[in-house]
Amino acid sequence: MGSNYKKNKVVPVTAILLLIGIFWYLVAIPMNSEKVSRQFKNLSTSEHIQKCWSLKKPKLPTPHQIVTEMVNTTFFKKVSSKRSLVYHGWITLQATLAGFFLGTLFGILLALGIVHNKAMDLSVMPWVIASQTIPILAIAPMIIVVMNSVGVTGLLPKAIISMYLSFFPVVVGMVKGLRSPDQIQLDQMKTWSASSNQILWYLRFPSSLPFLFASLKVGVAASLVGAIVGELPSGAISGLGARMLAGTYYGQTIMIWSALFAAAFLAAFLVFIIDFSQKIVLKKMAIIR
Amino acid sequence: MISVSDVNLTFETNDGPVNALRDVSLKVNKGDFVSFIGPSGCGKTTLLRVIAALETPTSGQVTVNNMSPDDARKAREYGYVFQAAGLYPWRTVSGNIKLPLEIMGYSASEKEDRAQKVIDLVELKGFEKKFPWQLSGGMQQRASIARALAFDANILLMDEPFGALDEIVRDRLNGELLSLWARTRKTICFVTHSIPEAVFLSTKIVVMSPRPGRITDVIESSLPKNRELNIRDSKEFIKIAQRVREGLKAGHVEDAV
Predict the structure, then answer these.
(1) Å from A213 to nearest chain B CA?
(2) pTM exceeding the 0.90 threshold for the entire prediction
């Protein structure tokens, strides 16, 4: 059934992709038309449309322009070059992974506290939720500035912002997961006079893994957003966020869009890795078959 | 072995207090096979849970092997088999059986020996490496019984362990349970709502009725200790079943008033 299901997905996904592409090219015409008219005179309609799709600094670049830019800056620049997308992607990825790791750790620790400590159970969750109602764009510059003033720059401030976004799904998922064993399983543990550490290790933690993986998928995507947002206010010169910022300064729309797509692919790739490890782990544990 | 005297247990619920047990007194001797039978809400499971220290009575005295139930629990004096097998999906049959041994800190070789012994006892040889989902419901419940036996407690408490199984599997497991009981000389407390099951298995049948949960009759079985399934056609068996039925009916009439 699994392979059938996959086969059936190819057609609709391609169809939607095609529709978006067509729509994109159509919209690019009115968006860039004015600029073309200003730069070129006496063009035939088809030449005009051609120009709309191939401006150097268009309002809306077309997919093939973005792909060309991405291919150029990914494969035809040295990875150490400031113009390489790989270089900028790597900078952002480092902060993302650091933040994701910290966020996951912090999230699990908070969840353990909430599940095992009555006072934390009653007090922590509202604060956790409140933390996510504050816009990250408001908090990010403060974190950068404060940490800068004590001499911490570079990866760590970005990782902190990243952590701030990614710990939340982990807390929520893990609290649910650690509480997922049913009453019979807990009573059973009691009849063996298991300590709460043993209950955690043998029962609660393994039961929580499906919940943890679901949270990690949300968390890793949030981490990437956090890392990019962390690059915006800091005047950073490297990273995908910095690349987007530089693009807006110089009107390099193609650069912005290619950084945006690079970020999207990176996020998809990270989610895919977690999804893949989830399948392996849960299969190994016979939780899914 | 187990002594329960004047136990009352009231649950506070949103609809007011519920008398789960009222003035329950009972003695279970070493080597007895005691069944608790009655309609739902009669407190038979609650009584078993009180003995296991999973519930605390509101008043009254309970001792298990001359200890308080909670001390008996901590001393691992009993094994408890729940309604659902409750096997861990990520552990094999033998891994599941070793789980309580692991928690109790047995050495690796000791765990292996004991697991092997109880696997033989419940006739699951050859299935040690299988995962729970690869077993039938009956086999899962046998694994769960093996797990309760693994640490060799004197007392086995069983809460409708075969309730979810079909009658054919249930008959076979009843026969196996009797021979297991004969071989191990354990004391067994067994909750059921099946009259034939209770009469077939027990040396003592405790008939209970609901609202408030109480004991209406205690029947010492006159059946011989060695029983085959066809004993259910004997006059003696039918007579005891009759008395159980009457005990249940008596509780029901009182309930209607």
Answers:
(1) 16
(2) no
In a mutagenesis test of the B interface, which of A193, A204, A207, A209 is the best target, namely the one with the most B β-carbons within 10 Å?
A193
- Calculate how close chain B gets to A70, using CA atoms only, in Å: 45
Asked if the bond preceding B57 is cis, omega within 30° of 0, the reply is no
Is B81:A191 a contact under the CB 8 Å cutoff? no
Q: How close does chain B come to A210, measured CA to CA in Å?
A: 12
Query: What tens-digit pLDDT sequence spans chain A (289 residues)?
Result: 445 555 678 899 999 999 999 999 999 999 999 999 998 888 888 999 999 999 888 999 999 999 999 999 988 888 888 888 999 999 999 999 999 999 999 999 999 999 999 999 999 999 999 999 998 888 888 888 898 899 888 889 999 999 999 999 999 999 999 999 999 999 999 999 999 999 999 999 999 999 999 999 999 999 999 999 988 876 668 899 999 988 888 889 999 999 999 999 999 999 999 999 999 999 888 777 6
Nearest residue of chain B to residue A209 (CA atoms): B90
According to the 3-state scheme, what is the secondary structure of chain A? CHHHHHHHHHHHHHHHHHHHHHHHHHHHHHHHHHHHHHHCCCCCHHHHHHHHCCCCCCCCCCHHHHHHHHHHHHHCCCCCCCCCHHHHHHHHHHHHHHHHHHHHHHHHHHHHHHHHCHHHHHHHHHHHHHHHHCCHHHHHHHHHHHHHHCCCCCHHHHHHHHHHHHHHHHHHHHHHHHCCCCHHHHHHHHHCCCCHHHHHHHHHHHHHHHHHHHHHHHHHHHHHHHHHHHHCCCCCCCCHHHHHHHHHHCCCHHHHHHHHHHHHHHHHHHHHHHHHHHHHHHHHCCCCC
Gap between the Cα atoms of A257 and A65, Å rounded: 10
Residues from chain A that touch B132, judged by Cβ atoms under 8 A, are 286
> Which chain B residue is nearest to residue A187, measuring alpha carbons?
B54
In our burial notation (b when 16+ CB lie closer than 10 A, e otherwise), range A127-136 reads ebeeebeeeb
Judged by CB atoms closer than 8 Å, whether chains meet at B88 and A193 is answered as: no
Using a 10 angstrom Cβ sphere, with 0-12 exposed, 13-18 middle and 19 or more buried, the burial of residue B35 is buried
ipTM: 0.87
Paired tokens of A287? 């939780």
Residue of A nearest to B73 (CA): A191
